[in-house]
Design goal:
By secondary structure, this protein is of the alpha+beta class. The chain folds into 2 domains: 2-72, no CATH class; 78-183, Glucose Permease (Domain IIA) (Distorted Sandwich). 34% of the residues lie in helices and 25% in strands. The protein has helices at 2-42, 47-53, 60-73, and strands at residues 93-94, 100-102, 107-109, 114-121, 127-133, 137-144, 154-155, 160-163, 168-174, 177-179. The strands form 2 sheets. Strands 1, 2, 4, 5, 6, 7, 9 and 10 form an 8-stranded antiparallel β-sheet that branches. Strands 3-8 form a two-stranded antiparallel sheet. The radius of gyration is 26 Å and the shape is elongated.
Length: 185
Amino acid sequence: MENVNSIRKRINKSKKNLIFNILSVICGALSIVLGVLIYMKKDQNASFLKNNFNVDTNFIDTNTKIDSFLNSIFTFRLTSSKTQTVASNVTYLQMEEKNFFSCEGNQIPALDSGIVYYVHQEEDASYTILVEYQNDILVGYYNVSDPVVKVYDQIKKGDYIASYENSFKALFKQNGKLTAYDKLY
């Protein structure tokens, strides 16, 4: 009888150890995957790999696909259908160069209520900002400086987004198609 009890104890111990070992392997694998994803995001040009292992690669396309996938899963849209009247209209003054604009002052105001989806500093120290406004209007602001918004900020009509020196570039997309600024409102 003692032999049967000692065998049962060993079996129970091995089951507990097996579950612990499986969970340990899963946590270790998730830690490695998370570490690789963080590295890919922080070093998009893979300079560490190029300098130390002579591997010529980059992660820009991979990061774009991952961001696109995550944005499709975690989409934050304005649910309020209430419209607010603002005292003055927000207008951009079109410059002679294609897709370049200016405003009163050197601050870029939001065209409408929306959500900031992308803020990125470029190599030339300028910023690129992507804002989705109501009515499925997506606007990319380029060559801007000193952004006052961050990713997933909800903005209202007239809120300042960033500043610019002489002009800023803006591309407008409505219903998935590039459109001219004067055809939006």
